[in-house]
Amino acid sequence: MLQLYLEWVEYDSTGVYSDTATNIYGCDSLTSINLTINPRLFGDTTTIVACGGYDWNGVIYDSTGIYNDTLQSAVSGCDSIITLNLTSYPDVDASFTYDDGSYCVGDANPVPTITGDTTGSFTSSTGLAIDASSGVIDIASSNVGDYLVSYIVGNSNWQTPSPKVLE
Question: What is the pLDDT of residues 66-88, one digit of tens each?
Answer without folding.
Answer: 999 887 766 666 677 889 999 88
